[in-house]
Amino acid sequence: MEPKAPTPVQVAALVTAAFAKGADWGTVWLLLVTGARRAEIARCQMKHVGFERSRIFIDPTKVRGTSWWLALDSATMEPLEASSRDRIADRLGTLGQTPTGEEYLYSYQPDHALHGSLGYLSKRLKSMGQSIGIDTHTHALRHYAATELIVGSTSSPSRTASATSVLRPLPISMLPGGPTSIVVPLPCSPAA
């Protein structure tokens, strides 16, 4: 069976629907722009986001996988700062706690101490897609990111290449902060 990546128009509809549902749906955005597996994104904690250097640490779920830092563009960092960092800090504040960096980005717990269910993430995405007429799943978003890399004229991306130099932007009209395109970033060197 051939992998079926969503089209750019379908991705635009998915992202628009996700952000219309609320900030907690930022996981869909991260799946799209990173090409990471759902478990890799679900395991991301606040300490894995380098807000000052615009990057996220991806710790692979596969055996013998390689951990790496992924550069993120401003269209991705802005929602991460607003919907993750600030939202988590506010939630912890109502509990009388302060952020430690151990909080999970994707969590159903008020204190973000545990990551959310992977099965539920998949079910939510599939259900949201079906509600707007798109048959998709979390792994298809990974295929979308890979397809964009190939269309961007690279089949063997460098870990230090500029994301914007090899990927075509995807027009999106309704994203937080008003960005006008998605650029799927490439992995960057894990050097600090």
UniProtKB/TrEMBL annotation:
InterPro entries hit by this protein: DNA_brk_join_enz (IPR011010), Integrase-like_cat_sf (IPR013762), Integrase_catalytic (IPR002104)
Name of a matching Pfam family: Phage_integrase
Keywords (A to Z) from UniProt: DNA recombination
The keyword Cell inner membrane is annotated on this UniProt entry: no
Top-level lineage group: Bacteria
Domain (Tyr recombinase) ranges: 27-150
Statement: the UniProt record of this protein carries the keyword NAD: no
Transmembrane segments: none
Listed name of the protein: Site-specific integrase
Species assigned in the record: Glycomyces mayteni
Lineage of the organism: Bacteria, Bacillati, Actinomycetota, Actinomycetes, Glycomycetales
